[in-house]
Design a protein that fits this description.
The complex is a heterodimer.
Chain A (H helix, E strand, L loop, with lengths): L7 H6 L2 H21 L5 H10 L4 H11 L2 H10 L15 H37 L4 E6 L2 E7 H26 L1 E2 L13 H11 L2 E2 L10 H28 L9 H11 L5 E2 L5
Parallel strand pairs in A: 3-4
Antiparallel strand pairs in A: 1-2
Chain B lengths: L7 H22 L10 H29 L2 E2 L1 H9 L7 H10 L4 H18 L3 H5 L3 H4 L4 H7 L9 H7 L2
Helix pairs in contact in B: 1-2, 4-5
Classes of the chains: A mainly alpha, B mainly alpha.
């Protein structure tokens, strides 16, 4: 996303550094799980936890040769370690790390988005109460129908955003899921316990069944929900614009006469305040 | 233009919502992968997931601020109700005439032309029907006041609020 529309707190979640940190955490947790299974010695895991690190420029440098970002990453991490480096990425397939870490990043993003939706709902509720009896024209087909109140319009929107919050929570639950099931989802080279352990530590659910990837219906549901939230922010401003627009219309038929009469009122109902 | 205060914040939301919906379509295209995976989704997701969450975070913050600081002009909104010459109360006049014993057809034939006349001549609807003897014979001044009282339409607002806010 361009900088203009990036708020710092969300931008920080999607930096290369934070993404590689998430990858590293998944890699180390996987080693911890293998250690609990008796595969990796405890002292090696201790060293991995304490010393494993990466230099971003070095990762990009290696990627120039490998043309594979996960391989570049694991090699860069290995350069920060001694002999225990042999355990980095042990039994894993790239997407075990990438998909699980992606869900972990989305989980971080969801904390912010959820907070924002809750805050917006609170504002709508305040506006609804404040303008409960602020009478205004209700319109159908763009034309005066019967009186209503501005508070009712706000209450309608408040209810819709509450539904969007429910949708968001459902979509967040579906996307906050990890997988460590190997190349085709059969756990051929990885003990299912590793997935269980890593996901639990990251606060993710473990996908009951997966392939090399998490299934993308999860991401589609998530994006649908974001699109619905965004759409409602878009649609609601129609009211403010419609209520103040004063476009001249040539009177040709009755409906146009009605519109013209409305437009002649030249009344700004709602001022949508500019905030840059 | 110095006289204009444009709703650019709201219009900014309109544009960004278009982008997010576009990303949704890409996410749907990503659902069908070959067999146990192909990597077609990966490039798309590098863009759409960060961008969509960043966009929605930005939109929610900006738009919450707009709504929180909304300038509402109740007097203008009330005046706006009157700018259609009171024709919006025609339905209540019609029903009141029926309540007083007039047939629906007869009531419609008196009310509707006067409503049209109000539109076309920019004359208050009430003034026109007060000149109709068939109406004034059946409806007193007080009854007409009641027909033109917008608060009638708001009598259930409290009840609606009890179900929600």
């Amino acid at each position: 996303m361009i900088e203009r529309y990036t708020r710092e707190e969300m931008g920080e979640i999607w930096t290369s550094e934070n993404r590689f940190n998430a990858w590293l955490e998944v890699e180390i947790l996987a080693c911890e799980a293998w250690s609990e299974l008796g595969v990796i010695p405890k002292e090696d895991v201790k060293k991995l936890r304490e010393n494993a690190s990466f230099n971003i420029d070095r990762i990009f440098e290696i990627e120039q040769e490998t043309r594979h970002d996960v391989v570049a990453f694991t090699r860069a991490v290995s350069e920060s370690l001694g002999d225990e480096k042999k355990w980095v990425h042990y039994g894993l397939t790239s997407t075990d790390v990438v998909d699980t870490a992606l869900s972990y990043l989305l989980k971080q993003a969801n904390v912010l988005i959820r907070r924002d939706i809750v805050n917006f709902i609170k504002i709508l509720k305040e506006k609804a109460i404040e303008h409960k009896n602020t009478v205004m024209m209700g319109r159908t087909h763009g034309v005066h129908a019967e009186p209503t109140t501005f508070g009712l319009k706000m209450a309608l929107w408040y209810e819709e955003m509450k539904r969007n919050l429910e949708r968001f929570d459902a979509a967040a639950k579906v996307i906050e899921t990890g997988k460590m099931s190997g190349a085709v989802g059969t756990y051929a080279n990885i003990d299912p316990y590793v997935e269980e352990y890593v996901c639990e530590k990251l606060g993710l659910q473990a996908a009951p069944v997966s392939t090399q990837t998490l299934q993308r219906d999860r991401h589609a549901q998530y994006m649908s929900t974001l699109a619905l939230v965004a759409t409602r922010l878009k649609n609601s401003q129609r009211k403010s614009v419609d209520c103040k627009k004063q476009k001249p219309v040539k009177s040709k038929n009755f409906l146009q006469k009605v519109k013209k009469a409305l437009q002649q009122c030249r009344i700004n109902v709602i001022q949508s305040v500019q905030r840059i | 233009m110095p006289h204009k205060r444009n709703p650019i914040g709201s219009e900014n939301m309109t544009g960004m919502a278009r982008v997010v919906r576009g990303y949704m379509m890409t996410a749907y295209e990503n659902v069908s992968l070959w067999h146990e995976r192909d990597i077609s989704h990966s490039s798309a997701e590098r863009i759409i997931l960060p961008d969509a969450t960043i966009a929605v975070n930005y939109m929610l913050n900006r738009f919450s601020n707009i709504v929180k600081n909304l300038t509402v002009f109740p007097e203008n909104m009330k005046r706006n109700i009157d700018c259609t010459y009171g024709v919006i109360f025609s339905q209540r006049v019609l029903l009141s005439l029926i309540d007083q014993g007039m047939s629906r057809e007869q009531a419609y034939d008196i009310v509707q032309p006067n409503a049209m006349k109000a539109w076309e001549t920019a004359t208050p609807f009430r003034q026109l029907i007060e000149q109709e003897e068939q109406i004034t014979n059946l409806l007193s001044n007080e009854q007409l006041d009641d027909c033109f009282d917008y608060t009638y339409h708001l009598k259930n607002v409290d009840q609606i609020f009890k179900k929600s806010v």
